[in-house]
Amino acid sequence: FSSFIFFFLFLKKATLGKMGITDKIKDIEAEMRRTQKNKATEHHLGTLKAKLAKLRAQLLDPGKAGPSHGAEGFEVQKFGDARVAMIGFPSVGKSTILSELTDTESQSAGYEFTTLTCIPGNIDYKGATIQLLDMPGIIEGAAQGRGKGRQVVAAARTADLILMMMDARKGDLERRLLEKELKEVGLRLNEKPADIYFRQKTGGGVAFSSTVNLTQISERLVKSILHEYKIFNAEVVFREDANVDQFIDVLESRSRSYIPCVYVII
Q1: How far apart are CA 185 and CA 178, in angstroms?
Q2: Nearest-5° Cα angle at 101, 96 to 106
Q3: How confident is the model over 117-124, as a mean pLDDT?
Q4: Which of 157, 162, 214, 262 has most Cβ atoms within 10 angstroms of its Cβ?
Q5: In the chain, count of helices (H) and strands (E)?
């Protein structure tokens, strides 16, 4: 009985902690929306973005905070020469595409959430084997853990290419929503990492330099973001005119995935 009580209290604490993080994320997002973007507020907005990135990292993996974290995905062994993951909202036609292009039968129906796990199939093309993944539909709020959002994202990180499947009747809306959800959990579609050199040190403070003229971020803001991550000794070299989001991505590099994406309207 005492073990049951202990487990109940632990579960309650973990749930309340996750709710607290979600509320903090909403508060910061609301403050960012209220704040006008200009020269006077860019430092404040930059530190808010750093706080937001840290909280989202904790939400994805409450047991770890900071640059290193991950999420448990579907257990699908990688097979073939390349892996392609189909991502989209429920009932957009992913299962039909898998059944048409591979020998795998993926259940499809006229209602949502037919696919509840990741279903793989193989395509043989000119001597190459391509593994195609039919993923459960993403719903709004997946970045905060709704539905199977975390598992979908974790599996998508292992893909060599993402097919973003969209309904032709609402393609633009679905694209914006899907890109937002994937961006919030660290997936960068059709992007490359910024050319920024970053190395933590054991002492000596922050050594900052740039080889180009910076128009989107300042040395003061870089140091403030580092302090938000409790990094007080580091070497930072900007080799391109990167922005605040790109610099935060460098700090969170182990949780960022840069994957090519093809948009499919069906």
Answers
A1: 11
A2: 40
A3: 90
A4: 162
A5: 7, 10
Task: Work out the burial of residue 162: count CB atoms within 10 Å of its CB; fewer than 13 is exposed, 13-18 middle, 19 or more buried.
Answer: buried
Residue ranges of the alpha helices (H) in the chain? 2-34, 42-60, 94-101, 149-156, 171-184, 219-228, 244-251
Compute the distance between CA of residue 71 and CA of residue 61 in angstroms, rounded to an integer: 6
- Amino acid (1-letter code) at residue 261: C
pLDDT category of residue 206 using cuts at 50, 70 and 90: very high
Q: Contact 163/86 with Cβ under 8 angstroms?
A: yes
Could you tell me the end-to-end alpha-carbon distance of the chain, in angstroms, rounded to an integer?
A: 54
Q: Write down the mean pLDDT value for the chain.
A: 83
Cβ neighbours for 228, distance < 8 A, ≥ 6 positions apart: 47, 50, 51, 54
Q: How far is CA 68 from CA 29, 76, 176, 255, in A?
A: 23, 23, 27, 6
The C-alpha atoms of residue 18 and residue 16 are separated, in whole angstroms, by 5
Question: Given pLDDT bands bounded at 50, 70 and 90, which one contains residue 69?
Answer: very low
- Residue type at 152 in one-letter notation: V
* DSSP conformational letter for 100: H
Helix-strand-coil percent breakdown of the chain, rounded to 5?
40, 20, 40
Nearest alpha-carbon partner for 188 in 89, 131, 261, 87: 261
Listed residue (138, 137, 105, 139) closest to 119, CA to CA = 105
Q: Which residue has the higher pLDDT, 155 or 202?
A: 202
Q: What is the pTM of this model?
A: 0.77
